[in-house]
From TrEMBL:
This is NitT/TauT family transport system permease protein. It is a multi-pass membrane protein. GO terms for biological process: transmembrane transport. It is found in: Cell membrane. The chain crosses the membrane at residues 30-48, 92-110, 130-146, 153-171, 215-235, 247-268. It comes from Aureimonas jatrophae. It comes from the Bacteria. Keywords: Cell membrane, Membrane, Transmembrane, Transmembrane helix, Transport. The keyword Transferase does not apply. SUPFAM superfamilies: MetI-like. The keyword Membrane applies. Belongs to the binding-protein-dependent transport system permease family.
Length: 284
């Protein structure tokens, strides 16, 4: 088989121009979904405001939205929200970065070398099917109620999303591309660096998108269980003190943070997959 027939697949080596898909297409679709969903959000907000005021639900446990927003504004003004959400994001980010350091190299090795994958797959599957929430008491007993247990929980929550997606990304590399690189005398290191890793990046980023959200959710749960700071602690403490307006303000903050992170990751995923051709090869 001649290299001419492989040109669309081996552009890193022969300089063939790919038909780039617009990097902003997913962002535009996301913006369109937001626009279509605004009426439902407005209706939900009006219902939230009206239900406790009309006596449909107890205002002590479900205060009107205006009271919640007032409490949120007060906590933003005095820095309470920024302090707690900053602590939670710091814990989640540290655990996630540790997961990247461990999962990506391990996934590249497992995806590339079948013998290594067979040796480690059973252990990985066993750990992956053990919920991080079930292991929270173990992390706290072993590592204490300090920062180490929170970071460990977020690491455990994210690492398997990254690992599995990295393995899938490596295995989805076009075999013709690998053969073409090998035929040109490419070393194992260059093969990983110039062929396998770039081809696996879209799958890795998709795993990161799931891992980031799971890390944040896990650290919130850990903060509710054993912490003196963080947005999870704020929500749990406000609930116990029946400060429900502050509790819902914390929940709204967490929701807004999750949405911002999600759309940032959508933008990153679109950028990571912009090299894909516009023939529908990329994920929807």
């Amino acid at each position: 088989m001649s290299l001419v027939s492989l040109k669309p697949a081996v552009s890193p080596f022969v300089g063939t121009r790919l038909r780039f898909a617009p990097a902003t297409s997913r962002l535009r679709r996301a913006a369109g979904r937001i626009g279509l969903g605004l009426p439902a959000i407005v209706a939900f907000a009006l219902l939230w405001e009206a239900a406790p005021r009309l006596g449909w639900i107890n205002a002590l446990f479900f205060p009107p939205l205006s009271r919640v927003l007032a409490a949120l504004g007060e906590m933003i003004a005095n820095g309470t929200i920024a302090e707690h959400i900053g602590i939670s994001l710091q814990r989640a980010a540290l655990g996630f970065l540790l997961a990247v350091v461990v999962a990506v190299p391990l996934g590249l090795a497992m995806g590339r070398y079948q013998v290594f994958e067979r040796m480690s797959d059973f252990l990985v599957q066993t750990l992956r099917n053990t919920s991080q929430f079930a292991l929270m008491p173990v992390f706290i007993l072993v590592l204490g109620i300090g920062e180490a247990s929170k970071v460990a929980i977020t690491f455990y929550a994210a690492v398997f999303f990254l690992l599995v997606n990295t393995i899938v990304g490596v295995k989805s590399v076009d075999p013709l591309l690998l053969k073409a690189a090998r035929s040109m005398g490419t070393s194992d290191w260059d093969l990983f660096r110039k062929v396998i890793l770039p081809s696996a990046v879209p799958s890795i980023v998709a795993g990161a998108r799931l891992g980031v959200k799971t890390s944040l959710f896990s650290v919130i749960a850990a903060e509710m269980l054993a912490a003196q700071s963080g947005i999870g602690f704020l929500i749990q403490h406000s609930s116990l003190m029946l400060e429900t307006d502050r509790m819902y303000a914390g929940i709204l903050t967490l929701t807004a943070t999750g949405l911002v992170l999600n759309y940032l990751l959508v933008a990153l995923e679109a950028r990571a997959t912009r090299w894909k051709s516009s023939d529908g090869a990329g994920p929807a």
